[in-house]
Amino acid sequence: MAAAAPPAPVGKGILLKADPIAATFRDEVKGTLEQCTVRPKLVGILSTSSAPSKFYAEFTKKQCEELGVEFVLKKTGAALDPELGEGEGVEDAIIEANTDSSVHGIMVYFPIFGPQQDHYLQQGLNFKFHYNLYHNVRFLEPRQPSTIDGEVPPPGMVKSIIPCTPLAICTTGFLPYGDRAYGKTITVINRSVLPTADPYSTSTEPLAFARRSEVRVFSEYNKRPRRTAEKKTAAQRYHPRHAVHPSQMTLQEVLAVSDVLKTEWLKDGCICLNVAADKNFEKDIREKASIYIPAVGKVTILMLLRNLLRLQQYQRIQEEVQAKDTAVPN
């Protein structure tokens, strides 16, 4: 049964903070860690001078150390030395981490080069270690990235991984589970195409994905971004205010003062989430929003660690299956 929603001041929307939500999952993660015979190891790969990526890496390290998770931050390129290029050496670092048997999860801090090259790098991550790998299916076979739909995992199958930021956003704690986003209009304002939009676009109609200079539209009938010609037309026709005005939910993920959303652009009664470290909504946001979540970082990290523990479990299952497959019968 859903917990009671926190009371809101008269005339203002609900202010939902991350701390009470994070506390529940912190206890869950702690309990799981206590049962681990091997301490999980997460490798972070930071290859740019991006301040948001650096902040995220340092915040992740702090949370991991507090909970007893081994976190190794591998710096390459401009993150290691300002004289080096942005992203230099990142692919080699991914390959090295992919082949390290002591690693249970790999975290690459995007964006690096841009959508196309970043997608290539994401595909280079070993799916066994990818804590943020999105599958539009419910279950996976641990030995290979095959897929099956359904409600209960068949024998030998395990639950797929949902990216930690969307998972944190969906974990409100007081609303009942279900298809709450079905048929809703949602706008995501992001600095990277990875990996937030896809999990929402499977159940929303439509979803606008704004990246400062362009607005991509996902619909119930076409979950893929528009083609080049259509994108140019949309970029000329649309501004982020055009996307957020009809939206029942707006997710703001961009770290820049110039990207603060004006309250007057928003739809009355909408839900607003700030996923960035800085405040990207105006102070009077609760005059328009029915629910306002000012930060989700603490919950995001716990979802990351939850995924990491799941990956560690899957790797153990894989090893057991491989041992059975290679066992010589008596």
UniProtKB/TrEMBL annotation:
GO biological processes: purine nucleobase biosynthetic process
Entry's transmembrane regions: none
Coiled-coil ranges (or none): none
GO molecular function: methylenetetrahydrofolate dehydrogenase (NAD+) activity; methylenetetrahydrofolate dehydrogenase (NADP+) activity
Gene Ontology CC terms: cytosol
A Pfam family hit: THF_DHG_CYH
Tetrahydrofolate dehydrogenase/cyclohydrolase catalytic domain boundaries: 16-122
UniProt xrefs under SUPFAM superfamilies: Aminoacid dehydrogenase-like, N-terminal domain
Listed PANTHER family: C-1-TETRAHYDROFOLATE SYNTHASE, CYTOPLASMIC-RELATED (PTHR48099), METHYLENETETRAHYDROFOLATE DEHYDROGENASE [NAD(+)] (PTHR48099:SF3)
Protein name: Methylenetetrahydrofolate dehydrogenase
Annotated source species: Ephemerocybe angulata
